[in-house]
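Shall we go through a protein fold together, starting from nothing but its sequence? Please make up or recall a protein chain and show it to me in full. Go ahead whenever you are ready, and we will take it from there.
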Amino acid sequence: MKFLTNAGPVLDRVAISTSAVCAIHCLCLPLLLSVLPAMGATFFGQELFHVMLLWLVIPLSVVALGMGCRKHKNWLVGLFGFLGLVLLVMAAAFGHDFLGETGERFTTLAGALFIGVGHFRNYSLCRRAECDE
């Protein structure tokens, strides 16, 4: 696991990008569907896309934020990441059924935002501590 000791900043950058993709997808897909209804039949309009994003975001965030919390001892990194992951899983699990379409969208956006903030804070702390990139 030696390769993971210097991977923190890279993982944080990938995770921030993934959170941004998630937020952009959540904001833009309804607009695109109103202009191009056939977009709903593509991979990006399917539930599988959301599931695959979750399968990418959860382990990536757990590893990167876990390493950051252990290294920097900053509880806000873990708190932001944990809240974000809980919100994303809640949106995926309860989705339209309990939250409604708007509730699901806002919960997903809030989750992506919290995870992004956690990773950005982790990345900033690592840069200040001059972690290896």
In short: The mean pLDDT is 76.
